[in-house]
Amino acid sequence: MLDVSNIETHYGNIQALKGISIEVPKGVMVSVLGANGSGKSTLLRAIVGLIGPSNGTIRFEGRLLAGRRPDHVAALGIGRTFQNIRLFKNLSVLDNVRVAGYARSRYSAGEAILRCGRCRAEEGRIRDEALSLLSRFGLAGLSGEAARNLPYGPQRRLEIARALMLRPRLLLLDEPAAGMNPSEIVELNSAIRLLRDDFGLAILLIEHQMSLVMGVCERIAVLDFGETIAFGPPEEVRRDPKVLAAYLGGEEEG
Known about the structure:
four-stranded antiparallel sheet; 10 helices
């Protein structure tokens, strides 16, 4: 579904990514793991069109993504969350999810002003779908609450629900556990399992906490200073000497 092939990116004279290649098959969860500064978020920015690669290709379902605007990338079927939560904090929990539904609305501005039958029917569908997603993520009872009043963990789940309102086929999660306490990470783990098991999405999870990704991802790519030092099943990656040396305090053999 997603094919990242030999991607290189630069910030001025600094090379941020050095020939990264990753594949995300349909319905599979792949994690990109690495410390701060390893290139994880740069990779995500390249996928969604915020930066252009200086070399290599990125394809989604066979379509080249290079040169497309972020909103065009989203329209193709790629949803995302953000490392730093970006909710509409003064809107209600329900409206934060509903707003993503308008990306798929088909009525005109004139029909909206006149509140025609098609407009009212679509508004009802968007509301029902948003409430259903909130229920799936344990947020239905907070639908009228302003997003700014939610604790950190529920805000993360709300952002995931909003991304799902786009009906993506590929979901990019950018360090969803950042800033969470242990109990919130447990709740997040359950939410990610829900995405994998019930929604059947292809997922690319950008993360630096190995404890979060080991139990939910089928494949893990580990980055270090813009290069891939390991890629494979979780248990294989866990035992890789380069990963042990870079992230777990081990030593490479030989």
